[in-house]
Amino acid sequence: MDELAARDPFLGKIFKKVKGIFSKGSKVADATNSVTSSQEQPQKRELEDAEELALREYYYDDSAHQWCPFLPLTSMTYQHEDLDDYSAVQDFDVTANGDIVLLPNTRRNCLNGHAHPRAINIPSIPGDPSAELVLVECEVARVSAILEGLRTRSHDLKERINTLYSPFIKVLPPEIVSEIFLFCLPVEESDPEKISKSNSEPLQLGAVCTVWRRIAWSTAALWANVILHITSFVRLPTQVLLLQEWLSRSGQLPLSIQLSCSEDMSWVNVSPEEVMKAIAEYASRWRKLDVRLPSACYRYLPPSDDTHSLPLLQSLYLKPPGGQGDRLHRVTIHNSPHLTHLALSCLYLRSVKFQWEVLTNLNLESFYIDETLEMLRQTPRLVDFTLRRILGGDDRHTLPEDYIVLPALEHLNIVNDKGADLQTLISKITTPVLRKLAFASEGSLPPPIQDFVSLISRSACTLESLSFTECGLLEQRLLILLRAVPSLISFTLDMPVGILNNSPLTDAVLHACDATFAQAKEVVCLLPHLEELTYSGIQAFTWSCLTQMIHSRTSQRMNDQLAPSTTVSKLKTVRLCLTHSTPEEADIIPDLKAIYENKSVQVHLQTITRPQATANDQNATA
Q1: Which residues contact 46 (CB under 8 A, 6 or more apart)?
Q2: Quick one: 338 exposed, middle or buried, by C-beta within 10 A (0-12, 13-18, 19+)?
Q3: How far apart are CA 471 and CA 447, in angstroms?
Q4: CA distance 419 to 448
Q5: How far apart are CA 114 and CA 116, in angstroms?
């Protein structure tokens, strides 16, 4: 022991401390003899019963007048003051003679500085559970520290294993891994009506391991698309923090941001201010902005004027939940030179101001007809126009006296599910380059056939695609329309089932499109350029008329026999989804695919048996 003290001054200090502790143990006998029999008799008896234990592990503290445990010496550690690494930490044991024996540091190195495990042996302290509790808590703290250290070490080792042995990380450079990560992102939804509620793919990639997280966190393109769906005000502060961290990782890339909330949420006494402020900080990098929060949030949109612009903004969608609200909201975005796609829902035209002249795509929902005409008047570059849920009445805008010419409009899509009168709207516009026309309603609401015929006639447009969905259409009115669109290439009829006389595709219509029949009757063949026919609804035609019409448009020999005035294009695709009232009707369907498989026409046939369709027709007749 003296040799160790001479070799290492630090050990000498420890030896002195240990000898001092053992010297205090000699006071046990003196303290026992000093206890008076009149006042300390119970304590004396108790100490005599535990004399051997006290002499071995306890000493009497004169100043505190109580027995105290010796400090546990086994596996104590010391560390040189001038060394900070784990190699300076050394285990030692105290022998019965008071000598200190240095332990091998093999286990010490394995545990990277943590005390090596040993058996937990906490003696009971007679009559003093508080002191024993202190010992137990100290031991718990010591073991917890060891366990936490082992967990940290285990995490570090797993990270090293991933780095050293994972082929994905070891072979591929981070730049290639980043590109692979980008392929994990979902494709952006093209339909503005559809809403995504999560894009957690970057977070999932970062949860794999530390290396993946480091690469994902540094790949700005992973964070350029933001989707935040608010479902609870309790979680809103956490979501705002996540939004801020997400945006901070996007580098300097253009941003696509989508904000939405649950329809049943009440925003009374709650403000989306923090959410809007978080995205407003990056307004100069907005590329697409989709805000489906209450209109009260519009006040937090950054100003867009001569001094503040949105240079990258290309697409904007504003739709407050719950339908049309008050007129207090204001949206002013004057300086956005690249804003080409605009979608507005449940707003008032008097409350919004945009650079209308640069728009090419306009999607409106729940606007009055006079508001719609005023917006069309200001959008001369419009290419694609969609109008949904048209409101009856007006908002006191002056109707134009002359036609509104839309020189670039190619696609017109009208969804009149509220049954508004469209005559005022259609009669005020002219579309000289219109190529696609789609109309949809609900149930038996008929399309404005005569208004469409007038529009096509005065516009002198070459219509290529025509579609009617969920609307009531009679055979005679359909023939009137088809005579006005000889340039049609694609024709779609999606009729509702169960509506009386709502099966416009009849033998008369098929005969009118049959080139052979038209030449025999010396009449004009309708839809001579038709290449694609789609029909869904109740079958009101016979199979012989359908097959004859297809044959006249697919057989080269038949086409060669036609007069030049009756020549038609080859039919390429026929899609049929037929509804029957009985299984017997479905059983007599011919195998059209086998008939036309060698004539370069694709036939897709689906049948549905719905007995209730007949019942609905009978009720309607009665």
Answers
A1: 126, 127
A2: middle
A3: 7
A4: 11
A5: 6
Tell me how far apart the alpha carbons of residues 464 and 485 are, in angstroms, rounded to a whole number.
Answer: 8
Q: Are 497 and 579 in contact (CB under 8 A)?
A: yes
User: Which tokens sit at 281?
Assistant: 């900080």
Among candidate residues 394, 390, 491, the one with its CA nearest the CA of residue 442? 390
Residue 561 is encoded by which pair of tokens? 């026999």
Ranges of beta strands (E only) in 186-314 are 225-230, 255-261, 286-292
Give whole-number Cα distances, 456 to 382, 403, 405, 529, in Å: 18, 14, 13, 17
Per-residue pLDDT, 10? 47
- Provide the token pair at 125: 């302290």
Question: What would the CATH number be for the domain defined by 170-223?
Answer: 1.20.1280
Strand partners, 90: 78
pLDDT 10s digits, 30-54: 444 444 444 444 444 444 444 444 3
Identify the bridge partners of residue 354 per DSSP, sorted by sequence position: 333
Backbone angles phi and psi of 606, in degrees to 5: -135, 135
Q: Please give the mean pLDDT across all residues of the chain.
A: 78
Cβ density class 271-288: b for 16+ within 10 Å, e for less: ebeebbebbeebbebbbb
Per-residue buried b or exposed e for 379-411, using 16+ beta carbons within 10 Å of the residue's own CB? bbebbbbbbbbbbeeeeebeeeeeebebeebbb
- CA proximity to 429, closest of 446, 398, 451, 449: 451
- Reported confidence tier of residue 573, pLDDT bands at 50, 70, 90: very high
Domain with CATH 1.20.1280 in the chain: 170-223
Please list, in sequence order, all residues whose beta carbon lies within 8 angstroms of the beta carbon of residue 406, skipping any fewer than 6 positions away.
Answer: 376, 379, 380, 382, 385, 429, 430, 431
pTM, rounded to two decimals? 0.71
**What residues does 291 pair with on adjacent strands?**
259, 318
Q: How far is CA 532 from the centre of its chain?
A: 35
Dihedral sign from CA coordinates of 29, 31, 34, 37: negative
Measured at the CA of 299, the angle between CA 294 and CA 302, to 5 degrees, comes to: 120
As a whole number of angstroms, the distance between CA 418 and CA 390 comes to: 7
